[in-house]
Amino acid sequence: MKEYIRILAIGDIYGKPGRNIYREKAPLLREKYRPHLTIVNGENSAGGRGINGKAYRAIKEAGADVITTGNHIFDNRGFEEVIDKPDVIVAYNFPEESPGNRIFSTEILGKRVYVITLLGRVFMDPRVECPFRKSLQAMESDPDGIYILDFHAEATSEKTALGFHLDGKYALVFGTHTHVQTADEKILPGGTAYITDIGMTGGTLSVIGADPEKIVPRFMYPHYREKAEPCKKNLMVQGIYVEIDPETGKAVYIERFGI
After folding, report:
1. Could you give the residue numbers annotated as active site?
2. Strand order of the sheet with strand 146-152?
3. Phi and psi (nearest 5°) for 138?
4. Residues of the chain with pLDDT under 50
């Protein structure tokens, strides 16, 4: 029976509640899917904003192979503890002088597999380099490798457009950042597995992970600045499971989940 490369991607972990529920459910996920590679977005794993050493260790101990980040990577003072670790990657389209590793690579079933993350520009920081061009540039050193992208972006249109731009070139393109899991998982015509957003890991009775009591007033009162707190209610791990044919580099299966 043919063996496929099995990938787990876990949606943005939000604060301590997110770290706790991921640690609790990780054994069940490993038993069910038996992944060769587990990718976890740790963008909001430290108090809901950024990442630090404590959050890094918790995610790694739960079984993450690589931790992707996003636009908040430098917002937590503890980022210096993890920024140079080879299994933590920052956006490939950050300026070259920004610290951090841009690509994670490993060998699975005899194939070299690469993981990168990119930031979107629509409704985000337009100063980062073009994700459409940078995604192809990342392939130049090894065109025969298998590429996986965490596209950390706001606009669904930008995410979908990049998915089609990379169809047949990347094995998997999944979105993060909005913390709302979308129901559009699919295999694109060229063999790329795609979903606009894989969701988040944390309290789902929340405003994208934060306690509504702290967030709703921000929309009502212009000068309200009380600190957001991670929600602790209805904790859930959201993400996707994907199978990739090592011979063709094409995806053959994608499944979203929430537990």
Report:
1. 72
2. 104-108, 111-119, 146-152, 172-176, 193-195, 186-187
3. -65, -20
4. none
* Angle between helix 15-33 and 53-61 (nearest 10): 20
What is 119-163 written as a DSSP string?
A: E--TTS-TTSPPHHHHHHHTTTT-TTSEEEEEEE-S-HHHHHHHH
Q: Name 24's Cβ contacts closer than 8 Å, sequence gap at least 6.
A: none
pLDDT at position 179 is 97
Rounded to the nearest integer, the mean pLDDT of the chain is 96
The most distant pair of C-alpha atoms in the chain lies apart, rounded to whole Å, by 61
Cα gap 226→222, rounded to integer Å: 12
Token code pair at residue 241: 């499971």
Provide the residue ranges of all domains of the chain, joining segments of one domain with +: 5-258
| CA separation for the pair 19, 201 (Å, rounded) | 8
Which class in CATH covers the domain with range 5-258?
alpha beta
Strand, coil or helix: what is 86? coil
CA dist., res. 87 & res. 68, Å (int): 8
Return d(Cα 147, Cα 170) in angstroms, integer. 5
Q: Quick one: tokens of 150?
A: 């965490």
CA-CA distance, 13 to 202, in Å (whole number)?
A: 6
Contact at 8 Å (CB) between 35 and 7? yes
Amino acid found at 65: D
Residues 9, 243: Cα–Cα separation, whole Å: 12
Distance CA 41, CA 66 (A): 8
